[in-house]
Specification:
The chain has 110 residues and is of the alpha+beta class. It is built from 3 helices and 5 strands. Bound molecules: zinc ion.
């Protein structure tokens, strides 16, 4: 089952993230923060770079870049009852997490 939600807490900026969980574990699932551009996810058990995650998320929402996505999520009510985060950031180095931020992500870059 796939659900995309807006909630949880970005490990970089602590704002709500778009999240997609997948309890079949081998599907595409991610945390993606439209505020700072952080994205972390997996597909078929392989860790994905931020750029292809943003490509998929922006395409899914039919927007070209992060500012457009931020305008969209501003209309949503954050709900963090699903997942604090989809991926596990416990013990992760903060600089390594920051390296996953693509604040200017757009479909053109993906
Ligand atoms: Zn963030």
């Amino acid at each position: 089952m796939d659900i995309e939600t807006y909630g949880g807490r970005c490990p970089c900026c602590e704002k709500p993230m778009l999240q997609k969980g997948d309890d079949s574990t081998h599907g595409f699932h991610f945390d993606a923060c439209p505020h700072c551009g952080f994205a972390c996810g997996e597909s078929n058990n392989e860790t994905m770079d931020a750029a292809p995650i943003w490509g998929a998320v922006l395409d899914h929402h039919g927007v070209a870049d992060l500012p457009a996505l931020r305008a969209y999520v501003a209309s949503l009510e954050p709900d963090d009852t699903f997942w604090p985060s989809v991926m596990d950031y416990a013990g992760k180095d903060r600089d390594a997490l920051k390296a996953r931020c693509l604040p200017h992500a757009s479909l053109a870059e993906a």
